[in-house]
Amino acid sequence: MEDSRMSLPLFIPEIMKRKWREYLEIRWLLIGVIAAVASIGFMNKWHYPSLPIESVTPREAIQKMNASEQDLVEISRKGDGIWYIMELTKSGMEGIDDKIIAFLDGKGWSFTEKEGSGLFFEKDDERLIVSTEMWTKHYVLVRIPSQI
């Protein structure tokens, strides 16, 4: 009996070591899984903010932009407006405005003024208001009324 009492304290530290190792292995495994999911999500553009339109996802909008050679890419027709996406250039919003003005000039609309994020155009006796919205630091959303 004395032998078993003497050997009991020797087993407790070994059991504690084994449990501690299991805990560390599980912890590092969980950290690895979380890091893998986060990096996959980041690579798949989960980090893009939502769009003001429901008919297209942020990922689809980026894919349309990347697949096109044009500066102004249509991503959705919703109600009385057409939504476009543009990539921000080094010239910033001025470059975006110039591209929108050139696009609508080709459709017969004359630029009259800019107020805030709105660009105002006229054609015959009609007035058109185009709004721009900074979506991310690299992309701008443009809403043009469908009357163009």
Elements, N to C (H/E): HHEEHEEEE
Quote the beta fraction. 25-35%
Radius of gyration, in angstroms, nearest whole number? 29 Å
The helix fraction, in percent, is 40-55%
Put simply, the count of helices is 3
- The count of β-strands is 6
Summarize this structure briefly.
With 148 residues, this protein is of the alpha+beta class. 44% of the residues lie in helices and 28% in strands.
Describe the structure.
It is a single chain. It contains three helices and six strands, in the order H-H-E-E-H-E-E-E-E. With 148 residues, it is α+β, with helices and mostly antiparallel strands. It is rod-shaped.
Question: Layout of helices and strands, plus pairs?
Answer:
Layout: H1 2-43, H2 58-67, E1 73-78, E2 81-87, H3 93-105, E3 110-115, E4 118-123, E5 126-134, E6 139-145
Antiparallel strand pairs: 1-2, 2-6, 3-4, 4-5, 5-6
Task: Quickly list its features.
148 residues, 6-stranded antiparallel sheet, 6 strands
